[in-house]
Structures are given as structure tokens and as C-alpha cells.
Amino acid sequence: MKILKNYAFSLFLIAGIIVGGAAGLIFGDKTSVVRPIGELFLNLMFVVIVPLVFLSVSSAIANMQGMKRLGKIMGTIFAVFFTTALIAAVIAFIGTTIYNPLKGVDMTQIIKNLPAAPEAASSTIGETIVKTFTVPDFLDLFSKSNLLPLIVFSILLGLATSMAGAKGKPVADFLNAGTEVILKMVKVIMYAAPIGLGCYFADTVGKLGPQIINGYLNSFLLYLVLAVIYYFGAFTLYAFIAGGPLGVKVYWKNVITPSITAIATSSSAACIPVNLQATKKNGCAR
């Protein structure tokens, strides 16, 4: 009963995804009728991303004691990011070396059906860095398309608030309160997740199911196997390194909902609110 209570919401979410996927396979393109419900839920998640990132990052930095700790945390974040990316790349390379899903496949037809890449204007490395981490106008920050510039701005605001000391405390309190309110908002929106994600998944499977079966089954199956290996193997290892056996237990208790959201939406941006909510449950609110 305790396990059922702890994973009740995740089970409802899984049920919604399964029902949606089954409906997509059975009814095909007809499931597009429920797409607006799924898009309604996703739009609510997308809208909350910008204030959530801004408030949570600024609040965390503003309440941090000591710049040495901030430097250590930032260094750890970059180290973890590159290490996990490298491990994932190695697993993918080994998997495709053992089994080539495109062996004997006519690549010309696959390439012909790929969407054309937009023609990008030539730019220097410096210009690319500037466009990646900054925007020319303050209002441009408030878009999910500019999350990296928003994070940079949020870090700077948090640093300035912390450096202001007592005079910056009202701003820090505002950021703290705003973070709590926006997390509650995410919690309210997530109540609709089983229905919203189920409808979105139904439409996605209804449209892409035949394509997966007819043209991409081998690649999809290989990806699925490698993803499962990385998901259960590498993530468990990361949790163990971070917190030992207790870290593994806490991690797997709270990771299911973000994982299901990622599978259903295929959007890292849509998963940000859910990930932050799960992170807080893990005990990493600050």
C-alpha cells in the first residue's frame, strides 16, 4: 500500500500514456481530434518555464553563502554535464558498432524524406557565442527559445542580490516567494498530466506509428535498448555516486514522473518544470 501511495500519480500518468498509445494504434489519424487537449496541457507547461527558470535560478544564487561555493557548484555542473554526455556517446557508439540498424537499408529514400534544414547565415564562432548566451533586448529574455541567456541573466541577478547584503534581502525574499508560488502552479498544472499527455501521445502515435513500423523499426529498437541501458544503468550509478544507497532510493522514488513526461512530449523544455519539482522532492531545493 505504501508503494502504491508513493507512485500513485506516476501510475495514473503511465495509464494515460498507455491508453493514449493504444488509441493511436487503433484509430490512427482519427486521434488528431484530441490533439488540442494535449497541446493545451503542453502550452501551460511551456508558459510556466520562463518564470520558473528565472525565479528558481535567481533565488538559489541569491541565497547562496559564499562565492567559493558557487564556483564549486558551477564547476560540478559542467563536469557532470560533459561526463554524462561522454558516457552516453560511448554507449551509443558501442551499440551502433555491435548492431548497425541501417545495414542493407537504402539511405537515399530516408534522406529524401528528411525535412530540409534551414539555411543559416554564416557567422563566426564569436558571433555564435554572443547569440547563444545573450540577447540584444531585455524583453527577448522572456521566451523559452532563449533559455541560456535567461539563465545567464538569472545568475547575474542572483549574484547582485547576494552581494547587496541586507539591502538586497527584500529582493531575495521576493525571489524565494515567487519560486514557491510558481512551483505550486506547476503542481496544479500537473494534475492534468495523465489526460493531457495521454491525448498528445495518442495523436503522436496515430500519426507516426506506421512510419516507425515501415521505415524506422530497427533504429527505433536499437535506440530503445540503448536508452534502457543508459536509463537504468548510468542513472543508478550517478545517484549512487551522489548519495550512496539512499541516493539511489530517493532518486528512483521521484524520477518516474519526469521520465514519463519526457517520453510523452519528447521536449526537454516541457520537462523543466517537472524536473525542478522532482529535484525539490529529492532534497535539492537549494
Observed structural traits:
single chain; 286 residues; mainly alpha; Proton glutamate symport protein; 79% helix; globular
Q: Ends: how far apart?
A: 31 Å
Structural class estimated from helices and strands? mainly alpha
Shape by Cα distribution: globular
The Rg value, from CA coordinates, equals 21 Å
Largest sheet: none
* Oligomeric state of shown chains: single chain
Arithmetic mean of pLDDT:
80
By CATH reckoning, the class would read: Mainly Alpha
Task: Compute the number of strand runs.
Answer: 0
Domain count: the total is: 1
At the fourth CATH level, what is the homologous superfamily?
Answer: Sodium:dicarboxylate symporter
Uncertain parts: none
Looking at the overall shape, the CATH architecture is Orthogonal Bundle
Helix content: over 70%
Strand content: under 5%
Count of discrete alpha- or pi-helical segments spanning 4 or more residues = 12
Q: Please provide the ordered H/E string of secondary-structure elements.
A: HHHHHHHHHHHH
CATH topology: Proton glutamate symport protein
